[in-house]
Write a structure and sequence with these properties.
This protein has two domains: about 60 residues, 434 Repressor (Amino-terminal Domain); about 60 residues. The protein contains ten helices and no strands.
Length: about 150
């Protein structure tokens, strides 16, 4: 038995660590009825991330590089230097233990998880003044709204 990790294990664990979530929570966020496919990737039973799964991940977490999802090579994030102010605020809330995942923010704001992920990633259509205002109100006005936009 080899001690090397499969591409799927490397990619899955990278996502779990970056998002600060469990396999089960990732399955929920991806809309999977059962998370078994993710557990199979984690155990090495499934060697890699399928194109269908990569597309599903990109739909919820647009900041991941599609090439990295499929091959484990290259940069994990689409642009490592482009961390939005809203992502900084989200990371701060995670660091403080106020939230554990983007799902916590979605629930607090009564918004769709996909919309929250896209706003945090800086997608203009989702990163609106209304979203930032709701975010700031829900989490005690942690930052200047103009900065978060």
């Amino acid at each position: 038995m080899s001690s090397e990790f499969t591409i799927g294990q490397i990619v899955l664990n990278g996502i779990l660590q970056h998002e600060g979530i469990t396999i089960s929570a990732l399955g929920v966020q991806l809309g999977l009825e059962r998370s078994q496919v993710l557990y199979d990737i984690n155990s090495g039973k499934t060697q890699g991330i399928s194109i269908k799964m990569a597309n599903r991940i990109k739909a919820i977490f647009p900041h991941y590089n599609r090439s990295w999802l499929l091959s484990g090579e290259g940069d994990m994030l689409v642009d490592n230097s482009c961390i939005t102010p809203l992502r900084e605020a989200y990371n701060y809330l995670r660091f403080c233990g106020v939230v554990h995942s983007q799902m916590d923010i979605a629930e607090a704001l009564k918004k769709d998880k996909s919309a929250v992920s896209k706003a945090i990633s800086g997608t203009p259509r989702f990163l609106t003044r209304g979203f930032v205002s709701s975010f700031n109100a829900a989490f005690g006005g942690i930052s200047n709204e103009a900065y978060l936009l």
